[in-house]
Each structure stands twice: as C-alpha cells, then as structure tokens.
Prior knowledge:
The chain has one domain.
Amino acid sequence: xxxxxxxxxxxFDECGTVSGTAELTGLSPSAVSAQxxxx
Length: 39
C-alpha cells in the first residue's frame, strides 16, 4: 500500500499547485500542505 503522502506528492508534481492537488485528492489545501511538509 502506498503512503498517502506520496500519492499527494505525485499529484502535486503533476498538478503544480496546492489548490489543484487539494481538488484532485479531495483534501483541503491545508491538509495537502501539511502532508508535503511531513515529507
């Protein structure tokens, strides 16, 4: 099973923005930022 933070990072890499990543993953922008910070 892939770490959810790595999935978020992959989507962020493809999308390029926190808000776009949040939309695609169903997370809030602050949750996306927190996951990226943890990495």
